[in-house]
Amino acid sequence: MTYTPQKPPIAESPEELRKRIAGWGVDLDPKDRPSVPKLAFQEDLTGAHWELPERQPEKYPRERSPEHGMLTPVFGTAQPPSGVSGAIRRYAYRYSEGRTAHWLLLVLADRVDAWEHHLRSLLTLRPDNPITETGVKAEVTRHGLRSRVGQHRTDLKHQFLDPVIVAGPWVAAAWLVFSGVRKLVRPLRS
Amino acid sequence: MRAMVYRGPYKVRMEEKERPSIEHPNDAIVKVQLAAICGSDLHLYHGMMPDTRIGHTFGHEFIGVVDEVGSSVRNLAVGDRVMVPFNIFCGTCWYCARGLYSNCHNVNPNATAVGGIYGYSHTTGGYDGGQSEYVRVPFADVGPSKIPDWMDDEDAVLLTDMTATGYFGAQLGDIVQGDVVIVFGAGPVGLVAARSAWLMGAGRVIVIDHLDYRLEKARTFAQAETYNFTQYGDIVLEMKKATDFLGADVAIDCVGAEADGNFVQHVTSSKLKLQGGSPVALNWAIDSVRKGATISVMGAYGPLFSAVKFGDAMNKGLTIHTNQCPVKRQWPRLFEHVRNGYLKPSELATHRVPLEHIAEGYHMFSAKLDGCIKPLVVPTAA
Question: Do B168 and B157 share a structural domain?
Answer without folding.
Answer: no
